[in-house]
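Researcher: Here's the sequence for the chain we discussed earlier.
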Amino acid sequence: MADTAAKAVLEGGPEDLPERIVPIDPPGTELKIPFRNGYEHFRATSRQQNTSEGALPVYEWWERTELPG
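Model: Thanks. This is the structure I predict for it:
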């Protein structure tokens, strides 16, 4: 079964993020990635990057939010 989900490349943020190619569902202007008791926020750019999965949109890191507790 082919993977038809839209994907994006993450740029910036923590160097130890486990994934740099992530699904975007639905595609939009912002991604919120759960990581280490918080979220890493990435915004869509107008750029694309060639990857092993083809040309994908680039989302760049812009902030982190912590979960309370």
